[in-house]
Design brief:
Residues 6-151 form the DUF1468 domain. 62% of the residues lie in helices and 0% in strands. The protein is an all-alpha fold.
Length: 160
């Protein structure tokens, strides 16, 4: 079986476990007044599990392929790909998750976007820095002000 089908099989298992949690365990602790709402906290996970299961089954059964072709990624030649960049990005994601709370959203997200684009090869600082700052501020504004979810904007030692 091809690598994409093995990955799809793993995703089917993950979607089934996630769907079980969404359909049978998430709504048990709801308050009585919330049980009459049309949208529950588990609505999005339910939709996500069904769509993920459908997509994984399409790949597993090979319905997306029209003809047999050479695989895009040859796992026997992983050294030929940009594996260093991928591992650096994964490390950067972990560092971002660890720095988000102590350093605040604005600094952590801006630094993550700038360092991520440097890792991927962007060298135009005059474009990269303003775009990263603008994107961070827009996301913070939307989450904080529009959705009403508190994100600590500044580091704790600044009073954020």
């Amino acid at each position: 079986m091809a690598l994409d089908r093995w990955i799809a099989l793993v995703l089917v298992g993950i979607c089934l476990a996630y769907g079980y949690a969404a359909w049978f365990t998430m709504d048990g602790g709801l308050a009585p007044f919330m049980k009459r709402n049309p949208i529950w906290p588990s609505t999005f996970p339910k939709v996500l599990s069904v769509l993920g299961l459908i997509a994984a089954l399409i790949i597993l059964f090979g319905l997306e392929k029209s003809e047999v072709s050479e695989p895009d990624i040859d796992y026997r030649r992983l050294g030929d790909y940009h594996l260093g960049q991928a591992l650096l990005l994964l490390g950067l994601m972990v560092a971002y998750a660890l720095c988000l709370r102590p350093l605040g959203f604005l600094f952590s997200t801006t630094a993550f976007l700038i360092l991520g684009s440097v890792i991927l090869g962007e060298r135009k600082w005059f474009v990269m820095v303003p775009v990263s700052v603008f994107a961070t501020l827009v996301v913070w504004y939307l989450v904080q002000q529009v959705l009403g979810i508190y994100l600590r904007p500044l580091p704790g030692f600044f009073g954020g």
